């Protein structure tokens, strides 16, 4: 990231007027090269940076999955304050071998989906508001949808934590992880924090995230598709959907300018996500059919109890059911 920023600044001061943003296949990190450069001249450079970056990413990933496996014995050794709390502290009616704290039991001492919610989200509008409504994110027609999967160990079971523990994630869009005992009512929200929607993911939901400044027409199109495809959905804006600056071609005057570029439309399902700049119906339908209803409790259709900021409750798509018997029933 630092390399990217430095080279960007260098570029601004040293390079010719025309340049292009090059993306290594499968990567969302772009590199700026002069427009007239032959493509292969920069390949080695790009390859080197790409390898460095994926090495860093892998290290973060390893550290992340290591902490998922922290268990009681680690905690009792006092080594990791973020590990699963000792079962002995948890009231007996809430204990559960698999998750630490049982799911779906509303209890004010632990989680009743009403008390202490500010531990996960302080209620700030910055997480769901576009402060530059007249200046939306640039729509990058040239960016292909980027689908990535984390390698989640097959025997991984997410842990549940009461509201007196904070749960943090190493990545802005986690695809699995510890979460709260109570999960959200399926539907569209003004905002839902990941500590809630990750529970929906464990139950096979598809979660749609979008940046608050994403183009509203595209957001609307994707929402409609998701609602027509899968009953068990959660839809929420999130400022944690990453945006980055890069070069944008201004077609009429044929010049590249610095602007906000991104893939601000995201679908998340167990272990995988797809990030998109525009709505590609076929890719969305394929993603939902392949990835929904996965996860350790992927076929559980039980409705949730958390409903803070709920805007619209989900209804099964016509031709399907609350079990999502048919995913995207009205699409080929
Ligand atoms: C706790 O973690 C250790 C390694 O960190 C592992 O060997 C052990 O099986 C784990 N215990 C339980 C109960 O998960
Ligand atoms: C958090 O709440 C649970 C359930 O009431 C309790 O057992 C636990 O001791 C509390 N932990 C802390 C750090 O207060
Ligand atoms: C809300 O936005 C702030 C500022 O970007 C960020 O630090 C915080 O993690 C966000 N909260 C959630 C729940 O996404
Ligand atoms: C919760 C979690 O995964 N934390 C890890 C995030 O990454 C750093 C290192 O990059 C680790 O030290 C944390 O344990």
What does this protein look like?
Keywords: Signal. This is Tumor protein p53-inducible protein 13. The protein has about 325 residues and is an alpha+beta fold. It has a domain at about 105-315. The protein is about 25% helix and about 20% strand. The chain is built from six helices and 13 strands. The strands form four sheets. The chain has a seven-stranded mixed sheet with strand order 5-12-11-7-8-6-13, with helices on both faces. A hairpin with a 2-residue loop joins β11 and β12. α5 (about 215-230) crosses α6 (about 280-290). It is globular and about 70 Å long. Mean pLDDT is about 80; it is low at about 10-15 and about 65-85. Bound molecules: 2-acetamido-2-deoxy-beta-D-glucopyranose (4 copies). One 2-acetamido-2-deoxy-beta-D-glucopyranose binds near residues 63, 64, 67, 168 and 170. The site of one 2-acetamido-2-deoxy-beta-D-glucopyranose has 8 residues, from loops.
Name some characteristics of this structure.
332 residues; alpha+beta; 7-stranded mixed β-sheet; two-stranded antiparallel ribbon; 6 helices; binds 2-acetamido-2-deoxy-beta-D-glucopyranose; signal; Tumor protein p53-inducible protein 13; DUF3105
């Amino acid at each position: 990231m630092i390399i990217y920023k430095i080279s960007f600044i260098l570029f601004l001061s040293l390079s010719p007027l025309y340049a292009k943003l090059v993306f290594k296949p499968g990567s969302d990190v772009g590199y700026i090269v002069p427009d007239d450069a032959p493509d292969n001249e920069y390949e080695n450079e790009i390859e080197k940076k790409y390898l460095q970056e994926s090495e860093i990413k892998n290290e973060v990933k390893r550290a992340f999955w290591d902490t998922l496996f922290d268990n009681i014995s680690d905690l009792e050794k006092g080594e990791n304050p973020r590990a699963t709390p000792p079962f002995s502290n948890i009231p007996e009616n809430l204990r559960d071998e698999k998750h630490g704290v049982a799911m779906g039991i509303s209890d004010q001492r632990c989680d009743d989906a009403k008390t202490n919610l500010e531990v996960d989200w302080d209620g700030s509008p910055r997480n769901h508001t576009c402060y530059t409504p007249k200046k939306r994110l640039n729509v990058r027609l040239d960016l292909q949808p980027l689908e990535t999967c984390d390698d989640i160990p097959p025997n991984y079971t997410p842990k549940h934590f009461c509201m007196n523990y904070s749960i943090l994630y190493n990545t802005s869009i986690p695809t699995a992880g510890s979460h709260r005992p109570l999960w959200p009512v399926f539907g569209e929200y003004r905002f839902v924090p990941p500590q809630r929607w990750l529970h929906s993911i464990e139950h096979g939901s598809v979660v749609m995230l979008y940046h608050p400044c994403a183009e509203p027409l595209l957001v609307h199109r994707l929402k409609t598709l998701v609602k027509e495809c899968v009953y068990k959905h959660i839809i929420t804006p999130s400022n944690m959907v990453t945006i980055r600056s890069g070069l944008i071609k201004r077609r009429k005057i044929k010049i590249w300018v610095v602007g906000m570029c991104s893939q601000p439309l995201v679908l998340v399902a167990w272990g995988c996500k797809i990030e998109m700049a525009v709505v590609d119906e076929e890719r969305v339908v394929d993603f939902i059919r392949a990835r929904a209803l996965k996860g350790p409790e992927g076929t559980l259709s039980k409705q949730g109890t958390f409903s803070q900021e709920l805007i619209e409750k989900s209804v099964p798509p016509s031709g399907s059911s609350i079990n999502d018997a048919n995913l995207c029933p009205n699409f080929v």
